[in-house]
Design a protein that fits this description.
alpha/beta, Rossmann fold, Arc Repressor Mutant, subunit A, 3 domains, three-stranded antiparallel beta sheet, 12 strands, 13% strand, rod-shaped, disordered C terminus
């Protein structure tokens, strides 16, 4: 057993058992040391230390200089040890892992800690440290070799592939990470990390760029995770609306069409006609009721100005009805009805009045006269207060 490196890892979920194991090892080791000393033979300095949640921070730091030859720990502490650059460096010469009393954590989250730590241990150590490291785990009743490298075989490509795979899997547990954060967490050279990230980027497993709002820093993120984050942000950006009582519908329509706050400019007329594009109404009603209710001090010359300046058109729609539109909107009308858009002019008088269309019974009560001018509210100021 080489001195100054951790060769044996003992893992048990019971801290009291770990302390007993430490005492049971230290006693025989002291006896062996005395026997070798009397025989004039050198005996290696074998230290046995325990690490758990109760281990003080100064003692944890001392374990790194130098590491104990035998380390006794718990599943949780092993996971924390593997997540720290300085701590996991003590396992680079690990040759044997011993598990004890593992039946006590089957079906438990502590068992998950142990399983994940042992699964990643043989991958983390060779991937992050460039030396050939013989790693072997000793399970109860069976010797199960995990990795025994061939010293004559150059496995640098395998190691780098393992390194890339490890980083890719690690990023799946996080959102966007800066390169500085990756270097701090992994403890590898920047050039080596850069090559791994480029390979992962080429395989579309990660994305790199300015992915965080209000930040110009370039970050790295797992592709699937970033897509999930985008979906979450889009969902959060969708406004939530509470349904209102149907009694507010007339008030809403009045506000939407500008009846509650009529404008008094040519631009206001343009905006109102945009809302009423292709709407069919009696020709006389446009300038007697529809437009005056939406525009304060409505001037008929405004409509003529729109015909000349904004390419406004009107389309005859049957007897005594017209609709307004702009040139690109002409295709919205039915082809089978003749249209003759003109810039301006007077409507021809019909020989007979147009028969009134039947009104569905469910609307009859709300709008007794479909062609009548509607008065939805009183006074106007109450309506403004309601919707602002």
């Amino acid at each position: 057993m080489p001195s100054g490196v951790t060769s044996i890892l003992y893992v048990s979920p019971l801290k009291a058992l770990n302390n007993d194991i430490q005492r049971n090892l230290l006693g025989p080791l002291d006896e062996l040391k005395d026997v070798f000393k009397k025989a004039g033979e050198p005996f290696p300095d074998i230290r046995v230390l325990t690490r758990s949640g109760d281990t003080p921070q100064p003692d944890r730091r001392r374990m790194q200089r130098p590491p104990p030859e035998i380390l006794i720990t718990t599943p949780e502490s092993l996971n924390l040890l593997l997540s720290s650059i300085g701590d996991r460096s003590i396992l680079i010469r690990l040759s044997t892992t011993i598990l004890d009393e593992i039946h006590a954590i089957f079906g438990d989250r502590r068992g998950v800690h142990l399983i994940t730590a042992l699964e990643f241990l043989p991958r983390i150590v060779p991937a992050l440290y460039v030396e050939d490291l013989p790693i072997e785990s000793l399970f109860p009743g069976e010797r199960n070799p995990i990795r025994i490298p061939d010293p004559t075989h150059d496995d640098s490509e395998d190691r780098e592939e393992n390194f890339r795979s490890l980083i890719g899997e690690w990023l799946t547990f996080y959102g966007p990470k800066s390169r500085a954060a990756l270097l701090a967490a992994l403890g590898v050279e920047g050039s080596r990390l850069q090559l791994a990230l480029e390979d992962l980027l080429d395989s579309q497993k990660i994305i790199i760029g300015q992915l965080v709002t209000e930040s110009d820093d370039e970050v790295v993120c797992d592709s699937d995770n970033f897509e999930t984050l985008l979906r979450i942000k889009r969902a959060e950006a969708i406004p939530a609306f509470e349904p209102l009582n149907i009694k507010y519908l007339p008030l809403f329509l009045a506000v939407y069409h500008g009846i509650a706050d009529p404008k008094d400019t040519l631009e206001g007329l343009y905006n109102r006609l945009e809302q009423l594009l292709c709407y069919q109404a009696p020709a006389a009603q446009w300038e007697s009721e529809i437009l005056p209710t939406r525009l304060r001090n409505y001037n008929r010359a405004w409509l003529d100005s729109l015909f000349q300046e904004r390419n406004l058109k009107w389309v005859g729609r049957g007897i005594q009805k017209v609709a307004f539109c702009f040139e690109p909107d002409l295709d919205l009308f039915d082809e089978e009805i003749d249209r003759e858009p003109v810039d301006n002019g007077n409507e021809s008088e019909p020989d007979e009045p147009e028969p009134r269309r039947p009104v569905p019974s469910d609307l009859e009560a709300l709008f007794p006269d479909a062609s009548a001018r509607s008065r939805f509210f009183h006074p106007v100021e109450d309506l403004k207060h309601e919707f602002r």
